[in-house]
Write a structure and sequence with these properties.
Elements (H helix, E strand, L loop, with lengths): L6 E4 L23 H11 L3 E7 L10 H17 L6 E5 L31 E4 L2 H10 L2 E5 L10 E5 L2 H9 L1 H4 L3 E7 L3 E8 L6 E4 L3 H14 L2 E8 L6 H19 L8 E8 L2 E8 L5 E5 L6 E2 L2 E2 L1 H14 L2 E6 L4 H20 L17
Parallel strand pairs: 1-2, 1-4, 2-3, 4-5, 5-6, 9-10, 13-16
Antiparallel strand pairs: 7-8, 8-10, 11-12, 12-16, 14-15
Bound molecules: magnesium ion (MG).
Length: 372
């Protein structure tokens, strides 16, 4: 089953541009920080952007359609130039006395968002009026109320603010909670490992283990999880690759566990399926606190480079034990290099989904109240 989608239903006037009848280009004045905030939200989250606006009396003599469209197109052009793109735009042209069901806080323009594909309880309406917050309630969403004056706040308002900077922080949680990082050092008679991990990174990796193909697989984790990982390992590869791969998995698992802390506010579950040329891989992950590996992969070669294919199940078992997670991994038959690479890519993308913070959630996703 595909994950449910999330949207931001964003008002236009009073939220993106100043509140007034915007019928000439001189009247297009952007709200401070709105463009950089929307860009940050777009970069850091998976929300769909949906514009929802009442434009009273467009296509009447007092507000010709052309005048509206010239301004609307300019607003969208400026936003697009900063990589802020709306996935859907819904404009109601009626007057209040028309009582149109599509006019906010009515939801008729947004019927398609009730089709079961949307996690409405995780969506937000961002608006400057009480009618926007009523729209949020009617959709089953939470509200983000952008306004200056003090007023009694409806219960479904998750954030009341006069600043787009605060909205961006709230929705990305980056500035509120900071990056989730860990440093792990581990020295044994067989290996020495030093590792720095940032779960909220941008996919930068510096990896040296002395085992070429294993480095290539760790780079797949970095690239597809978008974690930043600096990992140095020196090990007794003159014996074989076993201790090095095992110990790197232990350290990586420990680092993920440390960086997640008490796991408040994360998805907990993640999954991915992907194809790579002749191979299909699927991996699901649960950061339950309990280690378990189900590994349904029959490699078609015994070795890839200098790495025994036996070591891949051992890598994931060692990671599970150290991170306290369940992993189910299944890869079809095919080219062995593709099998391994598809496996590590799918694992990375599943972990990325599992550790992702859910905006506004500050609880552990478990009826037990803990994930350990
Ligand atoms: Mg408004």
């Amino acid at each position: 089953m595909r994950p449910l989608k999330k949207a931001l239903f964003i008002d236009r006037d009073g939220v993106i541009v100043e509140e007034r009848q915007v019928d000439s280009l001189e009247r297009v004045v952007f709200i401070p920080h709105v463009i950089s905030a929307l860009r940050k939200i777009r970069e850091k989250t998976d929300y769909y952007f949906v514009m929802v606006s009442n434009q009273d009396g467009v296509n009447t003599p007092s507000f010709p359609l052309d005048d509206f469209e010239i301004c609307q197109n300019k607003i969208l052009e400026v936003l697009r130039g900063e990589d802020v793109v709306f996935d859907d735009i819904n404009i109601d042209y009626s007057l209040p006395e028309d009582n149109c069901p599509g006019r906010k806080p009515g939801t008729a323009m947004l019927d398609s968002y009730f089709n079961g594909e949307w996690d409405l309880s995780s969506c937000f309406v961002i608006g400057d009026r009480l009618t926007d917050m009523q729209l949020a309630r009617n959709l089953g969403c939470k509200g983000i109320w952008l306004h200056e004056k003090e007023a009694s706040c409806p219960e479904n308002v998750a954030l009341e603010t006069n600043s787009w900077l605060e909205i961006a922080s709230f929705l990305t949680l980056e500035d509120i909670k900071g990056h989730r990082t860990a440093h792990v050092e581990r020295v044994t008679g067989e290996t020495s490992v030093s590792l720095d991990l940032d779960l909220d990174g941008s996919g930068k990796g510096e990896i040296v283990t002395g085992i070429g193909f294993f480095d290539h697989m760790l780079q797949q984790i970095v690239r597809h999880s978008r974690f930043d990982l600096s990992a140095r390992l020196s090990g007794d590869t003159w014996v074989d690759e076993h201790h090095s791969i095992e110990d790197m998995a232990i350290c990586l698992g420990r680092a993920v566990s440390q960086a997640l802390g008490d796991k408040r506010g994360i998805n907990r579950y993640g999954f991915d399926l992907l194809c790579m040329d002749d191979v299909h891989a699927e991996v699901s992950v649960d950061f339950s606190g309990r280690p378990e590996l189900v590994f349904c992969v029959s490699f078609t070669r015994d070795y890839i480079g200098s790495v025994s294919t036996q070591m891949f199940s051992h890598f994931f078992k060692s990671f599970c034990d150290a991170a306290g997670c369940n992993i189910y991994a299944s890869v079809s038959s095919g080219n062995a290099h593709h099998q391994a690479e598809a496996l590590f890519k799918a694992f990375a993308r599943a972990v990325r989904m599992a550790v992702k913070r859910i905006p506004g959630l500050d609880e552990v996703v478990s009826t037990k109240g803990v994930l350990e």
